[in-house]
UniProtKB/TrEMBL annotation:
Molecular function terms from GO: peptidase activity
Species the sequence originates in: Rhodococcus koreensis
Protein's UniProt name: Transglutaminase-like enzyme, putative cysteine protease
UniProt keyword terms in alphabetical order: Hydrolase, Protease
A Pfam family this chain is assigned to: Bact_transglu_N
GO biological process entries: proteolysis
The keyword Iron-sulfur appears for this protein: no
Residue ranges constituting the Transglutaminase-like domain according to the UniProt record: 191-261
InterPro entries: Bac_transglu_N, Papain-like_cys_pep_sf, Transglutaminase-like
């Protein structure tokens, strides 16, 4: 399925810094026939001030009897499908071409990013749309341990960007990136206790810390382009979905940052969707009807640069 929804260029006067071809392939294999499969997910990158989705297509095998695309409450592009053909393997393959403009550095260098962080608490009419992102989750994630961990990064009147950079660096320093150490249901308190996790855990911890200070923070799902070590060929399918966070600023602007890699978000990042938490924007979730006892899932993501990137090797 090719998405042909008309879209405008959100940054027409800014140069394109990067172009990427992104392939995201998910394969479900079952030990017996599945008679019906219903799926919903976020695989179609959205347009933002920092990027434009030039084209996107999602192929599903077996072909679905019903499918549609739409827009959720946050403006993310979602996909729904129903496969009614009996099958023992389901493949969902998304392919997109993205132009990235990158953050507006002049804007980030100006107020309110450099204003005291307290001024970025959303209040009044201007902050009405962001106030939802201040609220804790259900069940709650903000406890005494989160408040205590957040506090050193937010002394009174510290510039917002300095506070965010400090929090980003501390999470990167204090927590070990350990693939497979957590799951999508792992709570922030457990991450704090174990001092290890993956990108979504570090993003969720940062978000809880920001919310504990009365700031609005959102969870961002997308992709991060990686480069091989010097002299090595780039491998296919080694990239992965990535997660980071963003904090609201007056003027309805958001400052995005990546605790996993200890940096502010730049032109290597492409956004698929955002919400209050991972549960709002999973790549795929669904329901199947089957008597099969076992199943496996294999995910392959490739972010292929269409222009030369800097020789960084960030974690995914």
């Amino acid at each position: 399925m090719t998405d042909t929804t008309p879209r405008t260029d959100p940054a027409a006067e800014r140069p394109v810094l990067r172009r990427y071809k992104i392939t995201h392939r998910t394969t479900y294999t079952y030990s017996g026939p599945v008679t019906s499969s219903y799926g919903r997910g976020y695989l179609l990158p959205r347009d933002t001030e920092e990027q434009r989705c030039v084209a996107s297509v999602v192929d599903i095998t077996p072909p679905p009897a019903d499918r549609s695309t739409g827009s959720d409450v946050y403006g993310n592009r979602d996909l729904y499908f129903q496969v009614s053909t009996p099958h023992e393997e389901l493949v969902v393959a998304a392919e997109s071409e993205i132009e990235v403009y990158g953050p507006d550095k002049a804007r980030l260098a100006a107020a309110p990013a450099n204003a005291p962080w307290e001024l970025s608490r959303p209040v009044g009419t201007e902050g009405a749309m962001a106030q939802e992102f201040v609220l804790d989750l259900d069940p709650p994630e903000i406890g005494d341990a989160v408040r205590e961990y957040a506090a050193p990064s937010f002394p009174p009147e510290r510039p917002l960007v300095d506070a965010v950079v400090d929090l980003t660096t501390r999470i990167h320093r204090d927590f070990e990136y350990k693939s497979g150490s957590t799951s999508v249901s792992t709570r922030v308190a457990e991450v704090l206790e174990k001092r290890s996790g993956v990108c979504q855990d570090f993003a969720r911890l940062a978000i809880a810390c920001l919310r504990s200070r009365g700031l609005a923070a959102r969870y961002v799902s997308g992709y991060l382009a990686t480069q091989p070590p010097p002299g090595k060929e780039r491998m296919i399918g080694v990239d992965a979905t990535h997660a980071w966070a963003a904090v609201w600023m007056p003027g309805d602007r958001w400052l995005a940052f990546d605790p996993t890699n200890d940096q502010l978000v730049d032109e290597r990042y492409t956004v698929v969707a955002w919400g209050r938490d991972y549960a709002d924007v999973p790549p795929l979730r669904g329901v199947i009807y089957t008597e099969a006892r076992n199943s496996t899932i294999a995910v392959s993501v490739d972010v292929a640069p269409m222009e030369v990137l800097a020789p960084d090797q960030p974690k995914c």
